[in-house]
Amino acid sequence: PADGAFVVSNRSRSRSRFTFVTFSGAEARDRWGRPFPRGRNRAGDGELSDVTTFVVVVRPHSALRIAHFDARHPGADVCAFPMETLRRPLARLQREPPAFAFPLPASHGPYLCTQGVGGHLTHFFLESYHSLDFRCGLHTPVMSIGDGVVKEISEKHTCGGIHVSNLRTWNAISIELADGFVVEYVHTLPDSSRVALGESVRTGQVICESGDIGFAPEPHLHIELHAASDP
């Protein structure tokens, strides 16, 4: 609109849809002209910037005005993902998992769980529903929660912060546990892996170090669980 309002619409008549929207290079303001809080973002090349990011869920056949933004401002930019259908995940895994060890050492705690299963920031969609976030400092040792085999290692990325582009870029280690589950440790520091692909690991073994890589408002460990039959 001419008043600079940014509107997200959902044309579906039956499904709620969601997206993530980041405003950068200029302030996003509310209806009274007050600026929304901004958070720090670090690009892959190390460049720092202040951005405002919204998690937007729109009901069927509705439109939501989320902010006023002057896109004519030099350097102003809006980045958003295409709208996706909000699907209700299973309330629980296909079978109950056994008890697991804690992934962080007691000596570096205590730890605050900042987002739980189905959390409304980034755990509300199918891919990451069964996840937990633990606030911890950079370089905190991350330990295997069970016996298993290392299936995947990604540790080349360096970006961090709340820009939506970081949602598709992260570091992680994936381990298939002996009892039929796959666990992923996400936001880990680059080149911090202490294991190799195909290596067998034991409960409590240090596998890497925690970080703030990817979509991470602060340093933390994101840990998520999947059935190995449907990772």
Strand order of the largest sheet: 9-10-19-15-14-12-16
Give the number of helices: 0
- Enumerate the spans where pLDDT stays under 50 for 5 or more consecutive residues: none
User: What does the main sheet amount to?
Assistant: 7 strands, antiparallel
Beta-strand percentage range: 35-45%
Mean pLDDT: 93
Order of helices and strands: EEEEEEEEEEEEEEEEEEE
The amount of helix comes to under 10%
* Global outline: globular
Which oligomeric form is depicted?
single chain
**Class inferred from helices and paired strands:** mainly beta
Q: Cα-atom Rg, whole angstroms?
A: 19 Å
What's the N-to-C terminus distance? 43 Å
Please provide the count of β strands.
19
List the topology elements:
Layout: E1 5-10, E2 17-24, E3 28-29, E4 39-42, E5 48-58, E6 62-69, E7 77-80, E8 84-85, E9 112-115, E10 131-135, E11 141-143, E12 148-154, E13 160-161, E14 172-177, E15 181-186, E16 200-201, E17 206-209, E18 214-215, E19 220-227
Parallel strand pairs: 13-18
Antiparallel strand pairs: 1-6, 2-5, 2-7, 2-8, 3-6, 4-5, 9-10, 10-19, 11-17, 12-14, 12-16, 14-15, 15-19
